[in-house]
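Q: Could you fold this chain for me?
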Amino acid sequence: MTKIHRYALVAALAIFLSGCVAQREQPAPVDEVKPTPEQPAQPEQPVPVVPTVPTVPQQPGPIEHEDQTAQPAPRVRHYDWNGAMQPMVGKMLQAGGIAAGNVLLVDSVNNRTNGSLNAGEATETLRNALANNGKFTLVSVQQLSLAKQQLGLSPQDSLGTRSKAIGIARNVGAQYVLYSSATGNVNAPTLQMQLMLVQTGEIIWSGKGAVQQK
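A: Sure. Below is the predicted structure, expressed as structure tokens.
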């Protein structure tokens, strides 16, 4: 009996030891891998937005309307130059001390009024009044224009002063010069004439008369 107990004890011990060995040989339990805390996601940087300049709609320019109000035309005055000049020219031709056959320079009529008038028309009328006068030979318009250009003046310019008129008359070989001007109110001007001797500048006749508007 003792021997049987001994084998049983040995067998039990062996089973015990084999259990211990089995426990030792079992792999150690794998530690549970704890998930590492995720790194907080970096917030996305906003893409910088470049502000766009709003397009300003082109404003239409101011609409220009033609002025429907008709501008009044400047008043054109017409004068009876011939009615004033004929009597004066007749008196001048009858003045004493004037030798026939001399050359006469007719200067342009000067406008000395307080307004605008057509002095060219007055000058032309004066030359027509002296045409075929039987006493003077008139300096031609072409000769007078050339003489004015030599002084740097426009052919339409009046000589302006008596001294210039006398100087031009000497240049063209005239013995007399007729200096004329319209003075006073432009609505009722006065025509003045002076006949001068070129050699001395002496005024040998003068006259004046009213000019009426037509």
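A (continued): The chain has a mean pLDDT of 78.
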